[in-house]
Each structure stands twice: as C-alpha cells, then as structure tokens.
Write a structure and sequence with these properties.
Oligomer: single chain
Number of strands: 11
Number of helices: 4
Strand content: 25-35%
C-alpha cells in the first residue's frame, strides 16, 4: 500500500468510529472540543483503565447522568466495554486525583432515595466497601429527594481542600465531563 491509501483508510476508519477519541500522554483534562480525551490511564489496583471524556456539544439528555452512562457503555478500549467509573476504595480515588483534573464530572454511582442506599453501575452496593468520598458540605445536609427515585453522583472540587469529592444531584443536572472505566483485568 502506498502512503495515500493508508491515510485514506485511517480517515475512513476514524469517520466510522465516532466514539473514539485521541489521547495525549499526561493530559489531565479533555480538550475543549472533546476530540482529545484525558487518558486512558491504567490503574494497577483495579486492573482497569480510566479515561476522562468531554461530551461533544450534544444537547439534551447527553449532559445528564443517563446520557453519560449510555455514552460510556458505547466505548471500547483494548476489547473491553466501558462504563461510568466505579471508585470503590481509597487507592482508586487517589489514582483519579493524581491523573485527572479537579472539576465536576459524572461517575457510576447512584443514591437511591427510598432505600437510602448507594449502588455502582456494576450493581455492587457502595455502602459495603467502607470507602466514601462524600463532600461534607453535601453529606451534612438533609437529603431531599422530593419525588425522585434516585440522585446521580458526580465528582466535584471541594471548596476548601480543592480535592475531589462525591456529591449527589438531581437527575436533570448536567455536566459536560464523565469518567469512563474499562475493566480489562490486565495492562
């Protein structure tokens, strides 16, 4: 094959795979247009890759938790389907703080109002792990679910410490960033 054929093939493949993004080594936040992601970075503690992605100007539900969940589940890295990130221990939380910028972005955790329980997108009970990264400003208040069944959880930057913390939001809250995990089981 000549160089022109190879470049044309790459262009066609790129156009056919809109869910893929480019990445830059050491990048902690996606580009403003969402074409370049942060990561994926390998976490040996979980044997998963994590990638911070920006929604590419898609209106409506795409900025909400379920939209981010749907987008994450359409992604594949190293043959492994992605999902919103699960942060079940301190090591993973510290890994995320080291590798990604502070800010507001969706993770794979939901607070179910009626049972007052937390569930990860993989179905595990978050209360069983013994780890929590709740923002004290949120967790010390009365949780008001109103008529909602659940509240999605996101990372936010704690005002005083500048560290990442969990905070629940109403289901109509929107963010442009979401954290994807690819549980490959190996590097």
């Amino acid at each position: 094959m000549n160089k022109k054929t190879i470049l044309t093939s790459i262009f066609i493949l790129t156009a056919m795979l809109p869910s893929l993004s480019l990445a830059e080594v050491g990048r902690k936040a996606p580009s403003a247009d969402g074409l370049i992601s942060a990561g994926p970075y390998y976490n040996p503690a979980t044997k998963s890759y994590f990638e911070l992605r920006r929604m590419q100007d898609v209106p409506g539900k795409q900025t909400r938790w379920f939209g981010a969940k749907d987008l994450a589940e359409k992604l594949v890295f190293k043959g492994t389907q992605g999902h919103l990130a699960t942060v079940k221990n301190l090591e993973t939380h510290q890994f995320i703080m080291r590798n990604f910028k502070a800010g507001n972005y969706w993770i794979g955790l939901q607070y179910f109002c009626s049972s007052q329980s937390l569930k990860w997108v993989d179905g595990t009970d978050a209360g069983q792990s013994g780890f929590s990264a709740w923002d004290t400003q949120w967790s010390n208040t009365d949780i008001r679910c109103a008529n909602m069944n659940y509240m999605p959880v996101h990372y936010t930057t704690h005002t005083a410490t500048k560290a990442l913390r969990w905070r629940a939001s109403g289901p109509n809250k929107g963010y442009v960033l979401y954290l994807v995990e690819y549980p490959t089981g190996k590097e």
